[in-house]
Structures are given as structure tokens and as C-alpha cells.
Structures
1.
Amino acid sequence: MTTRRTLLYAAPLGVAAIAGAGFYTILRRMQTDDYDPHALPSPLIGKRPPAFTLPGLTGGPGFANTDLLAPPRPMIVNWFASWCIPCAQEAAMMGQLSQSGLPIWGIAYEDKPDAIAAWLNQYGNPYQRLAADTSGITAINWGVYGVPESYLIDKTGIVRWRWAGAITNDVLNNDLNPLLAQYS
Amino acid sequence: MTPRTLVHLVMARLDRAIHALTAAALIIAITLPSLAFAQTVIRDGVTLTQAQETRAEGIGDQLRCLVCQNESIEGSGAALAHQLRVIIRQHVVAGETDKAIMDFMVQRYGIFVLLKPPLSPLTLLLYAMPFLAVALGALAFWLSRRTRIPPPPPLDEAEYQRLKSLLET
């Protein structure tokens, strides 16, 4: 009789304790860049990028989805723009990744050729290949909803990971490096 | 020509004129609403009929703007929302069904783009929540009813007198 009553009174406390532990975990993981409640899972993961052909910049060749079918090693497709502030913050990381031997191909999102050229001069050019999506239609087909966004493509041309926002050291250590080890 | 025939002639003319006017008014009354319906509007740079625009707005109202996340595509000022509004209208003009256009968006952005999530294994808990809450409440109610201590039997005359004397002292 009384045990049941105690149990009934303890139930709300138990619920509050569980909720508290849950919130604590979420907030702690948000601080370490381990969890972003605004991040969306990309429907492209586990698939090949949709068909596209984009022109190059400053005389370069550009690229198409057919160029991403079988890269010799895992690679990153990085969407960026000269008008995007987080992209400038990410530039150093892109340079570092490129130096470490990770191939990075860039797609300039809704940008002007001379603005991109000036931006690459200022922040460095980590991109092996460079294409321009002036209309933003290819971006919509990829499900890009902001810049920067980075897509990891494995050796079979399948998208394995999408990161929306600048890649930080925590993201590199927690997400990208383990995936690179897994797929290389 | 006698004055009588002249009067007849004038009256006949007047009659015909009234008939013509009525017919014209009738034609205008019938065609005007459909004319207004067929009138084209330009939204986000796409020319479409009012009916198509209404359909496009209905679709856009059900889609989440991915930049701001708590606004619909129809209500958002973000550049991407504008582009998606354009795409919706182009697809509406091309004669696609609402479902085909929604599928186009879901294929690119996932079910998160839908402001009303569909019933799926992922959202089952979300939809089951009200029923779970009611069931939990019912359980709590039932448990509390079961454990209720029965009220003491009414006092007899002697007990009542004792209580009274106790309260008075």
C-alpha cells in the first residue's frame, strides 16, 4: 500500500532526473561540437551526387558528377562563397587538409568569378578542381542549404558524410578523421 | 408615317436596346469571375494564374525554410526560400502534382523539410506521444484510486458526544 504510494510520488522525481540527465548530455555534447540540434541529416548520404555539369573558373575545366564516380582516394567536395564569413574562417582548415594530402574540390555557390579570384588570392586556394554554381540549382539538387558545406565522397563515389558549417578542429577529430581512416 | 407607327417604332427600338443591354450585362456577369480567375500574376519572377499561385502557396506553406528552420518557405525572406518558391511555381506551371513537388523537396532535403512530419518509424514516438501521455495518466489515476484508504465509518452517538466534549475543552 504505502510502497505503491511512495512509488507514485517518486515517479515525477524520476522523470525530472532522467530529463535533467538528458539535457545535461545534450548541452555538454553541443559544447564539444559533437552534436548540433540544427544539423540536418543529408538524404545524399549512401548515394552518389545527382547529375550536374558545372563550368570552371579562371579558365579551369570545372567538373561534373561523372568526375566523382571513382576518386583514387576519399575526397571532399566543399561548397563555399566569397561572400560567406564562415567560409573565410574555414579557409585555414581547408588549406591544412589539402596539405595533408586530402583532395578537395570546390564549388563556388552563387558567386562572381572576379570575387572568387580575389577571395582565393586572399585566403589561399586549397582546391584541386574548382567549379561555379552561379544559379544555385546544383546546390538545391545536392540539398545544400547554406555555405560552407563539405561532402566526403569515398572511392566508390558514394557520399559518406556531410558537414554543414565550417569544419573545426573538433569536427576534424571527432568526425572526419575517423571516417577518412574507415574509407581510405 | 402616322404618329402611332412612329411611337411603335421608337418603342420597338427601345425594347431591342434594353434586350441587348441585358444580354451584355449577363455575358459580363458570367465571364468576369472566370476572367479574374484566368488573370495571371507574377510571383518571384514566375508568371502563373491565380489558381496556380494559390496551389503554389499551399505547397510552400507546408515546407520548412532550411535557413531559418522555424519559418515556412512561403513566409521566409531567405534567398534559398525565394529560390525554392521559384522552383515550386515553375513545377506548378509545368503541371506537376502537389505530391510530386513535395517529393522533389524531400528527395533533396529529407523529411525535415516538411513542417508536418509524415508517420514513419522515425516519427512514430512523436505521433504516439499523446496516446502514451493519456495512457500514463490513466494508469496513474487507476493506481491512485486503488490505493485510496476507505473513509472511517460514521461516528455513533457516544463517539460524537466524546468528540464534541474534546473540541470544547
Note: Strands of chain A lie at 53-54, 63-64, 75-80, 104-109, 129-133, 149-153, 159-164.
2.
Amino acid sequence: MTNPFEFKNPDEIKPNDLVDLFVPVFGEYYNVPRSGHTFINGPRGSGKSMMFRFMRPDCQVLVDSNGKRLKRPRKIKDLDYFSIYIPIKKGHLNKTDIQLNNKHGEALLNEHFMVVHFAQIIFKELLEIEIADNKKNRTQISKFYNNVFTNALRFSGYSENIELNKNLSPKNIFEKIIEVLRTIHSQFQHDYLKKLIGSPEPLPYNGPILLYTDFLYDLLLGFKTWDFMPPKAIFLLIDDADELNFTQRKILNSWVSLRTSNEVSLKISTQLKYKIYNTINNSRIDTPHDYTDVNLNDIYTTKKDVYYSRVHEIVARRLDKYKFTITDPEAFFPPDDKQASEIDKIKNQYIKDKIGEGLNKHQAYDYAYRYAVPDYIKKNIEGNRYTFSYAGFGQLVNISSGIIREFIAFAFEMFVAQQSQKPGIIKFIDPEIQDKQIKKYSEWKIESEFDKYRDESDNKRDMDKLRNLLMGMGGLFRMILLSDSSERRVFSVALHDEPDEELKNILDLGVQHGYLQKSMIGNKQGTGKSRLYILNRILAPHFGLDPSSFAGYKFMKSSVLKKSLDDSKRFAELLKKSVKGAKMEEQMQIFGQDDDN
Amino acid sequence: MTTKLHKDNFKDKVIQKSIDVFITSSSFEDRCFVIPRVMSGYPLKTAIVFLNNNESDKIIFNAEILSKEIGDVCELVPLDSDSPIKNYIIIETILRKITSKQTRPNLLIDSTTFTHESLLVLLKLVVLKKEHLGSIYFVYVGASEYSINSKSDDDKWLSKGVQKIRTVIGYPGFTDPTQKNHLMILFGFESERTKRLIEEFEYENISLGFADIDHSIQNNHQKINFERHQRLFVEYPKASKFTFSLTDPIEAKNQILQHLKNTRFKNLNTVIAPLNNKISTIGTGLAAIENENIQIAYAKPNIYNINGYSVPSDDVYFSELIF
């Protein structure tokens, strides 16, 4: 039985399957499919490569402008944009040797290296879309070769004779172009780059220099003379731009600054490590004048319903694709029946009570929704976090905290566990298996994965502080959950004031490793915005918290939050008096500390 | 051809070779003392001790001991393991100085405790300057035990984490973006670091190599290496398998090149990450010098098992590089 949650590299998925599996996200990220330069930032697993895969012509011909599957594929000419995928692989462009020439024409040589590399990929992509071999295409593409390509090469200093045989097919012409580019790429790498080592003097480069504005951009404009191309912008989908070296990133920024996006739009994905927004001339590129940016993580903190629907649709599509009898995600990941019915009982009682007290129906429901789960945890299971079940699709979506690959990863583990524990046809995942696996996953995140990050970190002291901060926040939220506070589902800390450098640094570290999410909210005085740090709900099972999507936040001064960096237990003690009915006994279990520590 | 010798017999062997220049690297490991102690009293013209003084203080401390033991001809040369360009310039300058002062000097390089990256840069420069050098010898001290502070085989570790992955200067390879990619890992003990490399590269083809049982330093090491290697194959079932020598760089080079002759890997962009001992790293360097299309990647660890990395064995491996 196929595990429907198996991760596949988007490159390996066939267009038909991809269209079945991909849930269009452009309602939220509306800038991505529009002309204009865009940076798309998100951690590994947030769906960048999948989005790019969907935008490629072989998938786009299968869907309409809204991403809905068409009965018959449309023509390339009818596409809303023509995109070309350019992955930046590790070790391809960022070669240490190129830094051996850091004075003499460094920018030009890096740009040449990038342009030839990009151009080769572009023509390989054209080769693969299988353009019809007819008279019109032959004429137009050979005209492009003779007028645009050859001239652009000549102006770049390439003097070899690259005459084209007559009457070649589009495929043959593209192959010829790739061959010429490969020769140029090979000459640069073999005759220049490799000779930088051991050269006592700066090594002169005598080959052609192919640049963006004089070469690549001209070629891309030339594509528009072909009748089969859409009269729309060409998108270069540059994936993982963090893999470029600093000089190359500045060069890419320089291309962004050219504002040529009506003709050629650069869609640049990064894994949040790009960090440089200066051009090669050290002028800054800014949003929205030069580019727009999309942060894939923001959706969970700003539009939770959208995220829920997206995961719902992704899971439903996968279950449908692999022909499961149950394709409704709610039924495939059922909650623990007993727990759900007890919580429902509490909810119904609260609704009845509150209506009796004179609240209207909406207010009564709101009260019941807000208190039923916390009260169940506090009273029915007496705060025993090992007894509370995290099964159920809704809870699991909340726990995945906006990272789709996170949901897919633990769903994969749940499916494997179900297969091994209950062999046979799988109709759904048992709630006990879901609960056990999600708790295991949550422990792994805060223990093994954290240890791994700590091991890999330059500054272990900072990682220890981050761990204290997370323990402090988790412990505080747990204390609030079991208290008599009016709002007991707290998952975030809002700061009254700006954190100092040290605290900011640790909070950023938490965001960088995905343990925290950052957002802004209106401050209490209504005079501006405050920083909000949300604990990743993947830690909810570890701390025994209620992961429901709506949650309040705890306002505090940054100097108070800072106390947690050195001593998470003292931090909780300090806040205990501000939390009505808070108890510390429970707290100790969460911190896992004793007085000797 | 590599000769395996007891360390007490090494002096007799090396005395016949008229070594002019001895190059080694200080380390936090006691293995860095074995060959320099044999060489003390040897009529050297020059001795160079490299040290990464941005790393553990123990490296600096041990470098000073080495300097005293080797004597007046010894020059301590600081490197910075975070600055590959700076290191390249320093190593190149040292070699230039040596070749300008001495006519075709015979070189002995103790590869044991170099970082993989510095060793590969040194190898490349030595090959580039071979016209100005006499005979070039490499020596390596094996370890009788690794990770001595670990209770069980499962806990054994030498280094953890990957701070940075970069191409090694001198081995940029040839990249053709229209071709598929191939990552070859010379696996040692560290499964986590290997997985991290696979994840970071996201290449379509993976080859995982493990130590050849006939050419391993210690059978117990080979057993751990083999078991962990098997576990990796469970996780990456599509990966190809190859074996490589840990005792003979030429053999390791030939095994790597032989693996790449497989039609599956023809014309691919191949990157090799050597994560095992220095003999196999030299073999990797020689393979990439012979086939310049190969790129070598260095995965700088975050931490080393400084307190229990290894115990020196009595065996040394001595080889002459002939071009």
C-alpha cells in the first residue's frame, strides 16, 4: 500500500500528478504569478519548489488561469506567463576558486559565469517543452539564432564561427545553442577558473564576457518573436538563491534593480539565508519599488483558516490520488472519540449555562470554545499531559504550525506505524497511533533536533539560552493553561518594548531554527505595534498545551522575558504572581530541572 | 605503493630518503606527535608546522611542543580553518619560499592531522610545483581506537554537525548545468553528517563508499563503518555502493575513478566529499587531479571530539607520490 505522505522531490513528479497534488496558493501569494520581481522566502519544506514546479509550462498547460484542471491542455501561447526553472545547486556557481580573483574584474567574471550557466539551463528547458517542428517554427528560431544569438555572442567577444546548417528543427537549433554555450562554459572553467590556483600574478581572462543586459536579456526578448510564445512576461524561477556567493547575490540584485519586469520577471526563492539586498554598485534594492516579497511562514500567523483549508485540500488530494476509501482528512485522522465526546459534553454544558446567565448564543459558544479544552485538561484529566490525546485532523493541522512539510512528515510516520502495527488495508489512522507518533515527533523536535542544532552551532551558549527561553515560554503557557486566568490558551509572548541586542539575538535564533514565529500586534495602548513571538505548536504535545488555533498572548516587558535566558524556572516564578491561581508544582515537571541545576 | 611499518622502523626507512623538508600540522590529537618525534634529530633543512589557531587552544599548545621537539629548523605557520582563501595564500607562499631557497628538495608530508581541506590544497600545490620539487612522500599514522570516550560502538563519534560546505580550492570540477548531478561520499563514522550532506546537495544520484575490508586500518573500525553504512542504505535505497582503500592513496584513487567509469555516472557533475581518513582523502585529491571534472567538497564540522578523538596506533603508512 503506497504511503500517501511520502515526500517526493517536485522535479520527480510528472505534470499530471503534480496538478492533482498541488493546491494553488496564488490567492494569498498573488504577486508570484504576476509580472514583477519577487523574492519568495521560506524554510526548507515550505513549498517553494513545489510552487515553482507548478508554474512551469508543462504543468501550466494543464490548468486554467485559476489553477483549475482543464479538460484539454491549452497552448503555450495561451499561458499567462512563460516560466523557466533555474535551480541553483550547491557547488555549481559558488566555487571557492572563483574568489582567488577578488580584485580584477571579479564582478564581470562572476556575472559571465552566472549568465552562461543560466543560459544553458534556459535552452535545455526549451528543448524539453517539445516545440512543434513546423516550417514557421524552423524559420523563426533559425532567424533568432542568426540574428539574436549570434550577434549577442559577437558583441560579447565570442569570435568562433558558429554558422548554422540550413533547415534544422527547433530541437536541433536549441541543441546547437547549448553546445556553443557549453564550449564557452567549459573554456571559462577549464582555461580560467582552474588556473587561478598556483598563479603568482592576477590571471588575465581573454575569453568572451556574456552579461545579463547585453546577452541574456536580449535573448529572452528574442523569444517573444516566436509565434508559439505567449505575449506575456517571461519568468525566471531562480530556486535557492542562497546558494550563490555574496558577489553573485549582488549581481542578481543588480538585475532586480533594472526594473525590466514587464518583459522578464525574476522570481527568486531563498531559504531565509540570502541576507544581501545591495547591488554590485552597493545601492540598495527596496520593496515595493524594485521587488515584492512573499514570506511563506507568515500565512500561519496571519491567516490560519487559509492554512487549514490548504492542508485539508493537500491531504484530500493525496488520499484521492492513491485511491483510499476515505478521502476526507477529518475522517482519515479521527480524534479520540472518548475525549471528543467528553469535551463536547463540557461545551454543551457551558453553552447551556451561559445562555441561562443571559449571554447570547454567539457569546455562549465563544465561551464554550475558549474554555472547554483547557477545562478538560485541568479538571477531567487533572493536567496529565500524557493522557490528553492530540489525535484529530484539526489538532494536527494546528500542531504543524504553517509548515506543510512538517504535517506531511509526521503523517508519513503515522502511516508507517499504522502499517506495522495493524497490517492490512488502511482506511484511517487510529487515534492512539496519531497521538503516540505526534508526541514522539514533538519530543524529537525539542530534544534530538535541538541537540543537533546546538552541536552544529558556533555559539553553544546562545543555543543554551534559546533552550531556556523555550522551556520558559512553554512552562509559562502550561502554568497559565492550568490556572484560573480568564484566557488560558496562551501561545505567544507580546513585548511592551524593544528587546535588547542579546534577547533579540536569541529570539532571532529561535525564529531561524523554527521554534518561534515572529509577528506584530497592536499594543495595549493602541498607539502602535508590539513584537509578538509565537511558540511553534509542534511543541504543544511536549509541554502539554492546547494547540487550538485561536490563542491569547501574554504581554510582558522584554526585561522580564530576558530572565528566562539564564533561568527558566525563576522566570516562571517571577510571573506566577501575575497569573491568577497559578501553581508551581506542575511547573517543575515541565522544566525538567531540579535545584542542583 | 604504500608501505605499512611499525613506527619504530619508520626512522630507518625515512633516513634513506634524504628528506629536506618536513611538513605537518598540529592538532588536539596526540597522533600529531608520532611522526615529528621520529623526525627529531633528523638533519632537516626546513620543518613547517601548520596550526589552525582559530580552533581549540590545545592545537596552539601542541604546536609549541612540536616546535621545541623538532628544533631550530621548525617554523610555526598559523592557518584559519574559516578562511580558505587566506590559508591557500599562506600555504602557497610557504611552498614558493621553499622552492626558491632549495633546489628540488625532497618533501615528507605527515598527513595525519591536517584538516581534509588544507591537506587537499597542499596536495594540489605540490602537484602544481612538482617540477621544482624532488621526491614527495606522504606518511600517515593510524589510530588503534577512535572516540575513546564513547561507551558503545553506537555512540562513537569524531565530529558533529556541518558548519559550512564549500568546494575545496584547486578542485572546482567542471559543472554542466544541463547534466544531472552525482554526490559521492567517502563515508567514515558519521551518519548524521553524511545525511546532512545528502540533504544539502539534493543531487539526483548518490554513491556511498565504505572502507574496503582488505585495506582498512583496524578491523573493528571497518565493522562500525560497515554497519553504519548498511543503515544508510536502508535510508537511501537508491544510492550506489563502492569501496575504497584506507591504506593506499593510489588504490583509493583507482577505486574512485573505476566507480565513475560506470555508464550511470558518465558526464554527470560529480562532487566527492571525503569523510574518512587522510589516506583516502589524498586518494580523492589524486582522482580529482587526474579527472579534472570532479569537484571536491569540504564539510567543515562544528565540533570535534577533542577529548577522545583517537589513540595513535603503532602503524604508519608511508608512500611516495610518483607523477
Note: Chain A is about 50% helix and 10% strand.
3.
Amino acid sequence: MVQDKSKHRAYLSLLLPAFLVYVLIILYPILMSLGLSFTKWRHFKMVGFVGLENYVAILTDPSFQKSMWNNVQIMLVSVLGQIPLGIMLAYLIFRQWVKHTKFFEMMIFLPITISSVVVALLWNRVFSPVGIYTSLIRTITDNPDYVVKIFENRTFAMVPILVVLLWQHTSLYMVIFLANLQRIPESVFEAATLDGAKEFTIIRSIVLPQLANVIFTCSVLAISGSLKSFDLVFAMTSGGPVDYTSVMALYLYKQTFTFNNYGYGSAVSIIIVLLSVGLITFVRYVYAKAQRKYE
Amino acid sequence: MRKSIALLLIVSLLSVSVVSAAGTKESSSSDGKIHLRSYMQIEPTNSQYAGHNAIMAGFAEKYPDIIIDTEYASGEAFHQKFQAMAASKQMPDIFTVYGGARTAYITEAGLALDIGKEYLTDDIKNQYSSATWGTQGTNGEYWMIPPSLAVCHVVYSNDQLLEKLGLSFPATYEEWLAQVSVIRSAGYYPVSMGNKDPWVVNSWLLSLLVDRLGGPDWFMKAARGEGASFTDTPFVRSLQIIKEMTEKGMFSPGVNQMSNTEADQEFYQGKSVYLIDAGWRTSAMDKDLPSDLKESISMHVFPALQGEVTTNTSTATVSEGFGISASIKGTAKADAAWKFIQYYNGQEGASIRAQYGEVPTYKLDLSQVKMSTMQAKFASFQSEHEMGYVFDAVMGGEGVSMLNEDIQAMMLGNGDPSEIAADYETFVSKNDFNRL
């Protein structure tokens, strides 16, 4: 009994500092943010409690809806683009279907090592009205008014950003999948081949089940990363033109730090957290179902 | 068990307090000197601020008993940190503050000293140009003395190109529109303007148009909602002109994708005949352009408009200057801070800044100062044109941001001037501090 108590004391003494840090840095700001989200602020002074007014205003604001839709597009590209493409590239290299695999591995991994701000500036330099690509097309087509119109299109202005995100982040998933593929014993593939399994069967029955855990982890990373997208979009377009490429984090930033609407901004952050938790729970559910199927 | 947990809790909280306290630095006066903490929106490594650095050195030499410990920041980063300072009541003694709404988070929270009440006398005011003393606080407060005016509208022309095309600077807006086909058929763009950041069209063009068509009296009435509104003709017509300029091809392609720097480059490279920009661009022109190009650039204002109530005007705002923290009111520190502000803006500071190409608000005989090519042109531009207001320096930021996005959408073909004006009026009537 005495030993149990001293064990507990030792555990608690080890846990307490970390727990305190967690409370101070994570839990307290989230609860504070939740409280603030029901208030209206003006120049560092709380004007009063407004109940759910901030939430209603946010959800009915077309600019927020546009931002949320843009986040959904990023999420779709991340989950349905970056992850499958990452698996494909990793498998291609793992099976050594191309020569110089080390070279390709390095080249594919390169974009993720570059800062998002640098990537944004690079793409802007190429596609801006005075950029290299625009100047080249103007010369070739003899059309001095040519500009990359997709940047000005309300529906498709996100496409260039999505392409950059796909180009930049696929490599990270590729490396994760490649590392996990290398953990599958070579003999498993040899046995499957001897049994006459085709490549598609190997992928469906061996590779994907083996990678299921990693796919789930990557999906969680992709979803949470997509919902908090900020740096690349901010550096590339700042959400413009108009609000065509705005995302929720940019909307939150503008409301909080440009207009000083702290209550409103807090409500946006709570919505982002709820969306993130909701979507990750959904992925967990899908993953659990898929796991049961393979058991 | 409980005791040990309580002890751990106390120790942990104390450690946090000790760590926090370590970040606070008290200004020491044990050496008998007055120590001031300042926070300035300036980039001392940028050659544009060489004059500022010279003034700081000059002040330190003249007043060795006043030590100014300065922290510099620029752009959004400046404002973010400043807001955090204000929220935590860790205000510096001297700081950059705007006459308009940009630092309302400081001025409206009562954190800046009203130097108008504390220090400014008629004698001091008379030493500066009359445009210096435009409205700052809504109750007549003055937070700072602007060292120079921020002229927000200039139409720069490349006279070599104009001559080559057989054109001259247009006298009227209609004449300007008529030049578009001539310029375009010769393979040039008429006007460069970088509206990627959508405040540009507001600050540099809309302000001018609204001031010309409505005048200052109408604008102040509309801002306050006293018998005028933003659905009135001057505002709607101003938006229509911007739409018309876009539709008739006055701007170079991709005006809403182009940054300021890119638009400037387009003009400097001789691809466009005109550039709509701010007056402070002259510093960069002086630094970056070859002398023949500088010689061929002229500075004008928007040509005459039908029905305008003010003529031949540009727009300017007092922009920013140095303010004093309200928390040191009545102390020796405040007097030392005021000494610094007077030195910076007055005879001594103005003379130094003029040598580095700035046109100061302090009445200085500029003929005695050797000025660079573009700065000389800028000085004469300021003496030739009356200055109107800058729209977004008067109206609240949130509404202006919404308006800017609507104008950008309109320029991209997704908006109607009357609807934009109506939406803006609705927003202003419910939210803008001018109306509340």
C-alpha cells in the first residue's frame, strides 16, 4: 500500500510539470478562446456578451463561406491528391520501376525542404503579369494583353495554389510511405509473385492493408494541415484578388489582427477546431470500418 | 500526497512567474540620465531612412542626458507587436502613431498623450505648413507632429514617350480616355498601377476622385451621416470612373494581379506612359533610375473632371509621426520625449531630413537645400497643388477593406458601382466609428 502511494507520488511528480505546461499553453487558451467567442470587443475592451451572435454572423458571411470552401478544396487535394500520389510515387521507387531511384527520391523530396514563402515568391515571379511565363506567352502569341486569367476567376482562382500545394507536399507523404513500404519483408512480395498474384492484387491485398495505419495518420495530418493553411496562401495571394483565394485562417487573421474583432476571431478559431475534430473523428470511423473489413 | 502536489503546483507557478518577470526590463535612471524606450515603424537599414539615422545620431550628441533605447519594426509586424504592447500595458515612452485610423487601437484606447493639450502652442504650430494640422483625434486631439505629408496621389508621366507618340499630358479626363487607343496602337500600356493589394486603388485613385467630385464638406457630412451619404452622386460617379477606366483599357493588363513594385518596374522599363502612385515613390526613383529617365518623368494630378468641385488637387494625409505614452504624462520623461519630437520635426531635424531628400512639414527654405532631381520635382508638386483628404485615412478600416474588395471585384467585372455604394453605406451606417 505504502509502495503504491510512493509510486503514485513519483508518477504525479513526473507528470505534473508537463500537465501544468499543457494546461497553461493548450487548455487555458482554448477555454479562453471559447469564452471570448461569445463576446464583442473594441480596442482591447470587451463591449459585452453577444451569445451566439458571432457564430451566426460568421456562418452567414459569404466571405467566410468562400474561405471555408477554399479550405475544403485544399483538404480534398491533400487527402485525395497528395496521399494517393505519395503512395504511387513511393511504390514506383520502392519497386525500382525507374532507374536512378535515389536521384528521383531526392528530386521529389526537394519542394518540401523549401520555405513556403520562397515557393510562393518563386511561383509569383513566374506567373505574375510581369513574370517570365506571362512575358514568354505575350511574345509567342503577339498578344500584349495576355495574363494568366485563372488568378482572376472567382471559381478557379484557387487552382494555382492547389497545384503548388500538391507539388510541395506530396513529397512528404511519399517519404513516409516509402519508409513504411521498406518495412514489408521482401519475401512477402516474392511469395505473392510465385502464387501468381498480379501487381494490382499485390497493391490491394498486401501493400494497402500494410499501409492502412500510415494512411490514417497521413489523413489526419492532411486534414488538420489543410484546415490551418495559411503561410503559402498569405505569401502567394494574401487571399486575393477580392476574397477568391481566402482561407479560414486568413479570415481569422484579418478579423483578429487587422480589425481587432477579438470575440469574432475567437469564434472563427473555435469553428476551425470543431471542424478539424469532426473531420478527424469521421476519418477514424472510416478507418475503423476499413480495419474491420480486413480482419 | 496532497502536500507534495500542492508544493509542486506552487513551485511550477513560481517558476512561470520568475520566467515572466525576467522578460520585463525597467528603465534605469541610476546614472542620472533619462532613459526613454521607443518603438518606431522605421527600417534603419533602408537607405530611405538615412535621414532618420542622422537625426538620431544628432540628438544623441546634442542631448547626452537623454538616452533613447529604440526598437524598430515595419509593416504588419509593427502593428501586431504594438497591439500586444498595448494589450499588456507595456507601452513604450515614444512610438510611431498615425493621425488617422491606422493606430486607433492606441489612440481610441487613450494610450497616447494629447500633445495638442500638453505641449503645442500657436507659436509652434505656425512653424509648420497649414496642412500639418489636419484632424487627428475625433475630439480635436493631436497625437503627433507629422514630419512630412504622405501625398497619396500622383500621375507620373514619361515625357519622352509622350513626345514620341505626339501627345501631351491631358487637360481633361475625356482627353485622357481618348489617348488610350493612340498609346495602345503604338504598343504601350496607358497606365501602370499595382492593385494586387486592393487598398492601392482606394488610396491613390478613389480618394482623389471623391474629393474632386464631392469636396471636403460633402465628404465629412457623408462620413458622419449628417445630410449626405455614400450613395450620393460624388461617390457613385467616382466608382463609375474607376469602372470606366478599367473597361476602356487604361490600366495595363493584370492590374489586380500586379504588385506596386511590379507596376513601377513596368513604368520604369518604358512599357507604360503613365504611373498612378504615391508621392513618396520619388525617393526610390531618385535612388534607382538613371538620370535621363528621371529628367523625363513629370509629376501631375488626375486631369479635370466634369462637375468637379475642387480643381487641380492631389490628396495627402498627415500619416504618421512620433507620439508620447499617456502613462508618462506630467513627468520628466514626457518632457524629454517632447524635446526629442521637437528636435526631430523642428528646424534641426527638418534640415537634416531635407538633405536626405525629404520634404518636411516644417517651414524650411528649401532653396537653400541641395535636393535630388525627383525630390525637387516633388517639392514643387506640393507647392503647386492643394491637398484633399485620403479616404481610407478617415473611414474605419473594416468598411474600407470591404469596399476595397468590392472595387477589385468590380474591376474584374463582378460588381456594379451603385450596388457597391449602397453596400458600403449600409455597412458604414451600422459599424463605422465616424457614425457611432
Note: Strands of chain A lie at 39-42, 45-49.
4.
Amino acid sequence: MPVIDLANPTRFLALVNRVLPWLVAVTALVFAIGLYRAMHAPDDYQQGATVKIMFLHVPAAWLGMMGWVVMSAAALGTLVWRHPLADVAGKAAAPIGAAFTFICLVTGALWGRPTWGTYWVWDARLTSVLILFLLYLGVMALYWTAEEPGRGARAAAILTLVGAVNIPIIKFSVDWWNTLHQPASIVRLGGATIDASILVPLLIMAGAFTLLFFTLHLAAMRNEILRRRVRTMQLLQAQTLSEAHT
Amino acid sequence: MSFGPHADFIVAAYAVTAFVVAGLIAWVVLDYAAQRRIIGDLEERGVTRRARRKE
């Protein structure tokens, strides 16, 4: 099937229905391996067993940011090419990205208390991630409260592209400002500074979270396409009824 | 496997994550079932996605 055919919602739905069961199975398998490796990873020499929170916190942080990158690409598709599937992709990604960002914030607080002695500090990294979470809520509000889906999609796309400025700020906040949050220790020019016994389970968990994100995203896109079909059918039903009464 | 003196924080982090992920899964599964049900109801009443041409 040519890639351009996926732009057709009906063909996209057929592909999702075929791919989704396999994605669910692979995601569950990778999660099982990742959780097993995470639970059997050695304690950190400084943080002890609390390093196990990292196997959730870091992938959730990555996926929280990746969700916004996916939405930004979709926003371009909405504003430049006015493609209906781009709008569907953006709307479906917002709650998932928000949920991962929420997990990042909560697990970060639970990791911070025993490690730093505080649940929260208004430093650049934590604050910029909180802003990302609030931006997600803003985009969701625009999508869900718009009476006409097209108008809500355009407003949400503009907010998404404006909010994309926050992504490099989150990434480089630990380099640009003096923060309590540690600097990058995995994605950095000099290579990862984490021992392989902890890095490997972390990367497996990151793979599992990424698979989960795309599985949920495809399922949510399928739901959104069906929701738009419902709306079309309800409008046609209302039109037919009003014609019958005149 | 021991979680040491900070076991509560570790267990809470995994519990919150499991709860949120379960919520996301429930959201997509229930939403899918709801949309399929509404489409089924509309189709039973003879509503289609194509407007009828005027005679």
C-alpha cells in the first residue's frame, strides 16, 4: 500500500485494525522484559533503590516531550496542508502526552523527596515541565470546547506550535540555568554516564513506553475518526428530519 | 529484592504510573466501544454517512 493511501481515513482505519493487536502484544512483551530488568537492576551507589523510580520517570519525561513534537508535526499538517488526519493525530496525542507528563511530574516529586529532600522546587527544569503539562491541558480544552471541530483544531494547532518553544527549553534548561535537577546523563555529546547494568533496563523501559505511546495514539486516532463519523451521521440525520418537517 | 528505607516512594511511583496507564487504556477501550455502539444505533435507524440525493 503506498504511504499516500494512509491519508484516506478509511484505509487508515483498516491498517490500524490490522496493526493494533500486534502492537499491543509487542508492547506488553517489552514492558514485561523491561519491568523484570528494572526490578533486578542493582541499586545506585548514592541513591540506593530509589534509582528504580528512574525507570519510570525518564521514559515518561521523554514521551511527554515527544508527544508535543508529534502534536507540532500534526499542527503543521493542520495549518499548512489542512489535512483532516493531521488534526485527528494532534487531538488524539494531547491526552496521552499530558498523562505521560503527569507521570513524569509525580514520579519526579516522589524521587526528589528521598534524593533532594524536597518534593518540588521552582527550578528551570521542573517549572518548564509543569508549563508543558499546563500547555497540554490548554490544547485539550481548545479541542474539547470548540463547537465546530475545524475552528478548535486551528486554535489548538497555533497554541501547539507556540508551545513547541518550550521543548528545547526543557531539554537545555539544566545547561542554561543552575538547577537542582541533574544535567543530562544519557542523551549527551560525551555519551551516557550511566553504568550498563542500569542503562540497559532504562532503554528497554523507554522502548516499552514509546510502544505504549504509539499503541494508544493509534487507538485514540481510530476513536477520533469514528467520533467524526458519528458527528457526520448525526448531522445528516438532523438534516433529514428537518427536511421531513418542512 | 529489597527497596530499602524509601520503599514507600518507589511503590507509590509505580502505583501512580500503573493507575494512569490503566486509565489511558480504559479511556481508549471504552471510547472505542461507545463510538461503535453509537454508529451501530444510527445505522439501525437507517442513517448513513452519505447524504441522500434530492429526487
Note: Chain A has a mean pLDDT of 90.
